[in-house]
Design brief:
One of its GO terms (molecular function) is cytokine activity. With 197 residues, the protein is mainly α. The chain is built from 8 helices and no strands.
């Protein structure tokens, strides 16, 4: 069962994924994404004054048109490492999404009164992005391609827009963070696999 949750070594990346430096980065990234996921509800409570909005609410899907109107782009869809998704692709999508969420948080930060916790969250996302980029650099022999990324331009004209944007960003970040956690799990090497090699 343990080998089923750790798919990366099954698809030709055993030598890389077993590298101590890579696995250390995976574990540090796990710690950061856990910290990020634990802090999101607290950040939401301290930043969002309109208490009718809740994280993980089915109502949030109805607000996707509002997200588009406010200029909140969709993050890339993350896929775990498998025969259909390479380690490099998974890490690249993760890096792109983390960069996007850091920019989105930084775009709403100046407009919020209680933004200390959101600032800390943005820093943790930046740090996680750095770890992911270090993993990418390891598998690309020291070179990172420059990502093609359009700058975030949110359309926030009222306090209500700011509150909606902050709520939607945090809600989407929480879902993205769960996907990051799943992807990181697929990059782990398990003790059982190491014993069998």
């Amino acid at each position: 069962m343990a080998t089923m949750t750790h798919g990366a070594p099954l698809y030709g990346v055993t030598a890389l994924v077993d590298q101590e430096q890579f696995q250390d980065l995976v574990q540090r990234s796990h710690s950061l994404i856990d910290k990020i996921l634990l802090s999101i509800p607290d950040v939401h409570t301290s930043s969002i004054h309109l208490k009718m909005w809740q994280l993980k609410s089915s109502e949030n899907t109805n607000m996707m048109i509002m997200a588009s109107t406010l200029g909140i782009p969709q993050a890339p869809v993350l896929r775990v490492v498998s025969e259909n998704c390479t380690l490099e692709t998974s890490l690249s999508q993760m890096s792109e999404g983390l960069q996007l969420y850091q920019e989105l948080l930084n775009a709403v930060l100046p407009n919020l009164n209680n933004n200390e916790k959101m600032t800390e969250l943005s820093i943790d996302i930046r740090d996680l992005g750095m770890h992911v980029n270090m993993m990418l650099k390891l598998i690309q022999n020291g070179t990172l391609p420059t990502p093609v990324h359009k700058p975030v331009a949110l359309r926030l004209s009222t306090d209500y827009d700011i509150q909606v944007a902050a709520h939607l960003i945090l809600d989407q970040l929480e879902a993205f963070g769960q996907d990051v956690k799943r992807c990181l799990r697929s990059m782990e090497s398990s003790d059982e696999e190491e014993l069998n090699s």
